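Researcher: Good morning. I'm working through a list of sequences from a screen, and I'd like to move beyond sequence-only analysis. For each chain I'm collecting a predicted structure so we can compare shapes side by side. This is the next one on the list. No need for commentary yet; just the structure.
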Amino acid sequence: MSISEKQMIANQLNALLSTGPTTAAGKAASSGNARKHNIFSKDKLINGETQEEYDEFEAELLAELNPETPMEWILAEKCVCTAWRMRRLNAYEVHVITTLPQGEKLTDEILKLSLYDMRMTNNLLKFKRALRELKAERAQEQIYLQRLEAAEKRREAIAAQREQAQMQQTAGEPSAASPTQTQPPEPYPAPTQTEATPPTEEESLVPYALFSKPPAAKPNRTPNGFVFS
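Model: Good morning. Structure tokens for this chain:
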């Protein structure tokens, strides 16, 4: 069924009159029309929650988690956000139990909320475990750096001791450039020549043959080679 031109114009004019809220407050209110429980809302705060309560809750958790590095802060903020949603879930669960009548719809809603709670609990434990591992790695790195620094200090101390010992050893030895310490070597003593002492008067009266050994007697040999005395 085709629409006449007049009907089309009328629909367009009616659409101009129903544009929705135009103010900021109206737009903020209409943005939550499709929400049911607001558990996974992107907004940090929803109806019934105050900034003071959130700040106090966040300060307590951050003091317990004690993040220091940027990555630790990211994981800590995820823990805070997840824990705040778990708190919101518990409040909504109490609202459901008190408002919905007993029946199948209430049971289905409670089962759904239990699944949400289990999922968020697992996420919270995962974030805390990752944060704990980062802290352990950082502690190990600090211990390693401290050991390296201590080893470097020990090496420097040993090098200083060796240098000081070398300086003391050099100061105790005679220096080759100092004229006061250089002395010419003493000459070796010349060999002494023993002069022959002249014979005494008594020795001069004694024939020389008395002081010399007699010549050895030659054996008597015959022409045939026999020896006889």
